[in-house]
């Protein structure tokens, strides 16, 4: 099984590139942001609680997202590999993911981070907010809060995978096809190793 984490700050292109990567490599896409937005759309109690934090640009509690990922892994026993997008976002989530995958006899193969400047992130997300209807994209204050949350709590997750030699970075600015090609090069190298 090849299990990939696509990593990077809000607006770095994780969702955009995930759509192409799952086709290329036949992976199952697991995005905790998408799973949370489905809960919000269905107006579940979990979704309503999560929305309050998401609208402020804050992370939802670890146990909530770990529970969602655990269920998603159980629901996809035939997957030939997973692409995690927006998860793990804390070291506690990374440790929990390792345990969940170990129970299934597998592990993370690689984490690849998309590098994008803060000004480009803000520009992209404000632009997307015009049409996406995502309530966390509509004002710059919330977008910057998401970036601060990434810096304070999430960026350290890279160190967790560095210690196992499973971390790489790719330039996340340029055309979508250029970035996709760079990601493919990294992934193919991990697959051949
Ligand atoms: P989540 O849904 O994961 O959002 P995010 O990390 O903020 O990332 P985005 O979806 O905004 O960006 P992206 O990197 O996918 O970029 P995209 O491809 O869309 O999380 C939302 C919230 O849920 C969090 O704030 C948190 O509250 C909660 N949450 C989720 N997971 C959690 C977890 N594990 N733990 C705790 N809380 C969690 O691209 C962005 C825009 O740029 C698009 O408009 C796109 O068209 C454009 N674009 C993409 N590539 C390019 C390019 N190369 N050039 C120009 N524009 C581009």
From TrEMBL:
Pathway: Purine metabolism; AMP biosynthesis via salvage pathway; AMP from ADP: step 1/1. Its EC number is 2.7.4.3. It holds the Pfam family ADK. InterPro entries: Adenyl_kin_sub, Adenylat/UMP-CMP_kin, Adenylat_kinase_CS, P-loop_NTPase. It catalyses: AMP + ATP = 2 ADP. Coiled coil: none annotated. ATP binds at residues 11-16, 128, 174. Its main location: cytoplasm. Keywords: ATP-binding, Cytoplasm, Kinase, Nucleotide biosynthesis, Nucleotide-binding, Transferase. One of its GO terms (biological process) is AMP salvage. It is found in: Cytoplasm. GO terms for cellular component: cytoplasm. GO terms for molecular function: AMP kinase activity; ATP binding. Gene3D superfamilies: P-loop containing nucleotide triphosphate hydrolases. Residues 31-60 are annotated as: NMP. CDD domains: ADK. AMP binds at residues 32, 37, 58-60, 86-89, 93, 134, 146. Consists of three domains, a large central CORE domain and two small peripheral domains, NMPbind and LID, which undergo movements during catalysis. The LID domain closes over the site of phosphoryl transfer upon ATP binding. Assembling and dissambling the active center during each catalytic cycle provides an effective means to prevent ATP hydrolysis. HAMAP family: Adenylate_kinase_Adk. Belongs to the adenylate kinase family. NCBIfam families: adk (TIGR01351), PRK00279.1-3 (NF001381), PRK14527.1 (NF011100), PRK14531.1 (NF011104), PRK14532.1 (NF011105). Monomer. Catalyzes the reversible transfer of the terminal phosphate group between ATP and AMP. Plays an important role in cellular energy homeostasis and in adenine nucleotide metabolism. This is Adenylate kinase. It comes from Lacibacter luteus.
């Amino acid at each position: 099984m090849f299990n990939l984490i696509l990593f990077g700050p809000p607006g770095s292109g994780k969702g955009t590139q995930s759509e192409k990567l799952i086709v290329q490599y036949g992976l199952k896409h697991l995005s905790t942001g998408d799973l949370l937005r489905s809960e919000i759309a269905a107006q579940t109690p979990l979704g309503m609680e999560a929305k309050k934090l998401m609208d402020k640009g804050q992370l939802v509690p670890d146990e909530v997202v770990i529970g969602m990922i655990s269920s998603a892994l159980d629901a996809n026993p035939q997957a030939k590999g997973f692409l995690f997008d927006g998860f793990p976002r804390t070291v506690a989530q990374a440790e929990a993911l390792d345990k969940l995958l170990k129970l299934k006899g597998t592990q993370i193969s690689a984490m690849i981070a998309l590098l994008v400047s803060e000004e480009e992130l803000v520009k992209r997300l404000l632009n997307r907010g015009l049409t996406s209807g995502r309530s966390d994209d509509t004002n710059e204050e919330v977008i910057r809060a998401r970036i601060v949350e990434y810096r304070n709590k999430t960026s350290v997750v890279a160190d967790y995978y560095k210690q196992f030699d499973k971390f790489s970075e790719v330039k996340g600015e340029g055309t979508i096809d250029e970035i996709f090609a760079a990601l493919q090069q990294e992934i193919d190298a991990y697959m051949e190793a």
